[in-house]
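Q: Joint fold for the lines below.
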Amino acid sequence: MDLTYTEEEQDFRARLREWLAATLPGLPPRPDPLDWPGRRAYDTGWQRRLYDAGYAGLHWPADAGGRGATPTQHLIFLEETELAGAPYVGANFVGLLHAGPTIAAEGTPRQRARWLPPVLRGDEVWCQGFSEPDAGSDLASLRTRAVRDGDAYVVTGSKIWTSHAEVADWCELLVRTEPVSAAVPKHRGITWLAMPMNAPGVTVRPLRTLTGTAEFAQMYLDEVRVPVANRVGDENDGWRVTMVTLSFERGTAFVGEVVACRRTLRRLAAAARGNGRWDDQELRRTLGRLNAEFTALWRLTQWSVSEAQHTGTAVPGNGGSVFKLRYSHARQELYDAAARVLGAGSLDLSHDWTPERLSSLSYTIAAGTSQIQQDIVAERILGLPRGR
Ligand SMILES: Cc1cc2nc3c(=O)[nH]c(=O)nc-3n(C[C@H](O)[C@H](O)[C@H](O)COP(=O)(O)OP(=O)(O)OC[C@H]3O[C@@H](n4cnc5c(N)ncnc54)[C@H](O)[C@@H]3O)c2cc1C
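A: Joint structure:
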């Protein structure tokens, strides 16, 4: 494991820093969280600027439209953009961080050529249609059906908690192509499809969250025709493809946010010094522990990136569950500490830490709950016997 940066990597960092310093001033603030169409336009606009400057899809392979940069350069990119306060990936989250990487790893050359360049340019936005009203943690029990009819699958069912569905062009969709039976266990009959969100039969009903925003939705699918050519991987082999998607989601998708949390932690300490809360020994202890925690998470990231570079592995392993587990708890503790620093001010929704605190509650649920991550760590990393 080598955690030092080469001259080339340091040079890359310096050029990126310069570009950010020249580009960020004058950038308008991100639109209000109640305005998702506005946010989509803003987020995709920022993505386009990154693309034009040569910073989109840095570590994606060149034949997937990427720049073929090393994972370390990608890590430097995440670190520097967060440190500089560059816009959040936002509406581009699914496309850039897990649907795109899945297609790059599992798609045919034709599929890569069709879907990846528009993601990198910010022309198309993706959402994730995995969860269903009765299939969250137990994802394999999903019931949305897809029946083959000529060159299309006819899809009927419902998906829930679909982030950004309202503004998405495509959905990475899991469907059941083989009913569960004695011969077909539930993990076997699943297929991964790319569904156009404007297809007839797709209805999106936004759901309001604790913070008052409606960035996710329930989707109703009524005999939606999805071309067979949109299937990524083989029919009934979708569970394996899904594991690739989830390993990207848990392994790499939250990395940049660790840097953002470290930045917030510094702001928090400064605020506590300014308003007298620093005298609270218990609070100081919490902030110190969180500093250690976020530093450790960043080191864990550097370590796994260094390993991936060394072994040439494109898909992150189960280690992503360790990261996801610890990160989502540390994020909640960070914003609980923010509430202690703010005191009564923590009820003020216009303070950026207040909605962050409310939304931090979802981090131990989204992308797989903590209990599920604990199971994965216990069984697949530690080799402990199954509890059930
Ligand atoms: C902010 C947010 C955004 C999301 N975005 C998307 C999205 O874009 N697309 C999408 O498809 N999904 C999305 N989800 C859904 C998310 O993946 C699910 O909520 C999650 O997988 C949990 O499923 P569930 O809500 O059905 O809870 P359940 O599975 O019903 O779990 C309820 C409780 O039981 C526990 N539990 C369940 N099974 C076990 C077990 N075997 N062992 C121990 N404990 C267990 C769980 O940990 C949890 O505490 C999002 C969720 C959130 C909160």
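Q: Anything notable?
A: The mean pLDDT is 92. The first strand starts at residue 126 and ends at 129.
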